[in-house]
């Protein structure tokens, strides 16, 4: 997303400021949720649920940046949120011990951010989250600080994977 900022400034200052506001909120939200999840293995609704509304300007920015008539851009943002929520929901249903419902709710928010850029960013942000979480789990096992059954807070890895994808070029 950050690589698109100069072109957004050129094409549509309104879209630029909407994206800047959303990125600022993302940084605040990610920092709060990561600390809370690491400490308590919880992603509180009081932060996650309002984040859906805070990400809505991304939809508006996508449409404005596309010239005001690109319904596909808005659908990609909203679809990204829906698709990622559904993927995590299925994971939760298939293996409830491996995924909390807070992760499912957070996935929808992160999908909005990633969907703003592209479907590829949605894929890479999700893949990065699982890669980072897997490496952390492997590190716990190798250092004997945990086992394959150890619970790890996945929210910070979801947030980090999304942040990595937000800085990737298109």
TrEMBL record:
Name of this chain's protein: Type IV leader peptidase
Annotated Prepilin type IV endopeptidase peptidase domain residues: 26-138
Origin species: Sinomonas atrocyanea
Any single GO BP term: signal peptide processing
Cellular component, GO, one term: plasma membrane
Transmembrane segments annotated in the record for this chain: 14-35, 47-67, 73-91, 122-143, 150-168
Similarity comment: Belongs to the peptidase A24 family.
Keywords tagged on the record: Membrane, Transmembrane, Transmembrane helix
Pfam families membership: Peptidase_A24
GO function term, MF aspect, one: aspartic-type endopeptidase activity
């Amino acid at each position: 997303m950050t690589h698109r900022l100069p072109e957004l400034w050129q094409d549509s200052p309104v879209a630029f400021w909407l994206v800047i506001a959303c990125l600022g909120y993302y940084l605040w939200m990610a920092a709060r949720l990561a600390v809370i999840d690491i400490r308590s293995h919880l992603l509180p609704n009081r932060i996650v649920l309002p984040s859906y509304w805070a990400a809505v300007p991304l939809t508006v920015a996508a449409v404005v940046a596309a010239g005001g008539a690109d319904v596909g851009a808005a659908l990609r943002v909203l679809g990204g949120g829906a698709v990622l929520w559904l993927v995590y929901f299925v994971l939760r249903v298939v293996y409830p011990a491996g995924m909390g419902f807070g992760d499912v709710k957070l996935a929808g928010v992160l999908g909005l951010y990633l969907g703003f850029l592209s479907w590829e960013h949605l894929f890479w942000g999700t893949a990065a989250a699982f890669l980072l979480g897997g490496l952390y789990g492997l590190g716990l096992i190798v250092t004997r600080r945990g086992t394959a059954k150890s619970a790890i807070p996945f929210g910070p890895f979801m947030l980090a994977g999304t942040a990595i994808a937000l800085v990737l070029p298109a």
